[in-house]
Amino acid sequence: MTANSIKSSKAFSVFKDSAICIVVLTAATLAGYAFKAFQLADADIIMLYIIAVLVISIFTSKMYFCLISSLVGVMLFNCFFTYPEFSLSVHDAGYLVTFVTMFITAFIAGTLANKLKRNILIAEQNAREKEEAALLAQNEQLRADMLRSISHDLRTPLTSISGNASTLISGGDTLDESARQQIYTDIYSESMWLIEMVENLLYATRIEDGRMQLNISVEILDDIVQEAVKHTKRTHPKRNIIVDMYDEIIPVMADANLIVQVIVNLMDNAVKYSDEDSDVTVSVRRENAHTVVISVSDHGSGISDEEKEKVFDMFYTGGSRSSDSRRSLGLGLALCRSIITSHGGTISVSDNIPNGTVVSFTLPIGEVDLNE
């Protein structure tokens, strides 16, 4: 903020507080005339000016406005409500004591009101600082959990990759073809898992920093689903993936790349947490004229009701392990929820009867311009 803008801000604050004083004291004087018309006592009119000073103390920013308004209130009472009217002269010496008492009372009341206002502001500031400190501590704990999860989950695949590579380097010629192929497959599998984890971490960083850019347009849902299924079949060629959707073109408002990532994450979870000989199903249905529901279901061990409330939290794993004994980093479902929420949709998890899990999310249906 420049020096000129600071001066302008201070000048505006003084102007605003001065206007408040003028308006409140004028209102008190007009109310005093109404009191006088009903032949109320001078003490009642004095009380009006004390209340006016209280109001001014609450709504102005500086203490000296309380002092000035107390003095001006005494002068207004003397000018308009004591004999001789419209003059600052004092006909009755007893009014001098009244003026001094009125000034002291108004000033003390205004001071107390000002202190009360300051205490309230300080309490609100302390509450905000505590809230910010708690949020900072939560973020630090989240980062610490992330580092622990990353260090733990990187160690296993990296150890496997380095161990297999060492085996190939030191004795690759002595291994038969099937053994070498198995080592190549293990290295490829561990590498793909690391790539997936890094991609999810990048998405998590973009979401946390607010840098996720959405390129939402009208997309054909069938193309998005087929692209996600194709990607999953490349990484899990032995798994049977069933696509259950109507033979109709359903346009949706979506960022195609991000929704593909969501479906891939959900199918990866379904594959990891179910038996190798079980099916994974991707189904699509219209919920109403404006919304479509996409579901990914498996026949694994399922998720308990207690964990259903937590599975979308960042870095929550519940201690679960996949069918290949790897521990999840706990990013996939949290990222899915962030992406779907940014599309104006919802995501939920439910039981797949008789066993397994169904994760469903919604997307808004778009309109296709046939003239394009």
UniProtKB/TrEMBL annotation:
The lineage of its organism: Bacteria, Bacillati, Bacillota, Clostridia, Eubacteriales. This is histidine kinase. The keyword Aminoacyl-tRNA synthetase does not apply. One of its GO terms (cellular component) is plasma membrane. GO terms for molecular function: ATP binding; phosphorelay sensor kinase activity. Residues 149-367 form the Histidine kinase domain. Keywords: ATP-binding, Coiled coil, Kinase, Membrane, Nucleotide-binding, Phosphoprotein, Transferase, Transmembrane, Transmembrane helix, Two-component regulatory system. InterPro entries: HATPase_C_sf, HATPase_dom, His_kinase_dom, HisK_dim/P_dom, HisK_dim/P_sf, Histidine_kinase_KdpD, KdpD_sf, KdpD_TM. It is found in: Membrane. It comes from Ruminococcus bicirculans (ex Wegman et al. 2014). It is a multi-pass membrane protein. It catalyses: ATP + protein L-histidine = ADP + protein N-phospho-L-histidine. Its main location: membrane.
